[in-house]
Amino acid sequence: MLDSLVTSKTRIKLLLKFFAHNNSGYLRSLAKEFDESTNSVRVELNRLTDAGLLQSGENGKTKLYRANESHPFYQEIRNMVSKFLGLDELLEKVVMRMGNVEKAYIVGDYAQGIDSGTIEMILVGQDLDLEYLDFLTEKTYEKLKRKVMVQVVVEDPEEVSGFLVYG
């Protein structure tokens, strides 16, 4: 869906990075992460900044980029990115059909804005339907071509800094 609307693969990677999560990044680190030239990343960063979708600020001698949360389309782009990654559908299904899910955390690469192909989740709750969870992880792989790894815990983890919290 997103790749049919946005033709630049570098721009898609940047949108995923900045709008899937509240991440920030520097030109060189983004180029290295995406395995792209700094010039191609710079061009797309400039286009997104000129459009007002990204903000940049000086951090020493380097520019730090992040999503512009005050942009009128911020939430819509965030929703599109979430749908593109399949997270909205996955979380909705998990929470609605798993039983007593108190909280759901996205951890790992996705929590850092990296589409590695593996979605790692922590579910907090009691008496969860683990058989349905197995079925759902298989179907998610078939549909989204992303592996889902889920850890179920009864008590809320004490430290969840850096996680995306849903619930």
Automatic annotation (TrEMBL):
It comes from the Bacteria. One of its GO terms (biological process) is regulation of DNA-templated transcription. InterPro entries: ArsR-like_HTH, WH-like_DNA-bd_sf, WH_DNA-bd_sf. CDD domains: HTH_ARSR. This is PaaX-like protein. It comes from Cecembia lonarensis (strain CCUG 58316 / KCTC 22772 / LW9).
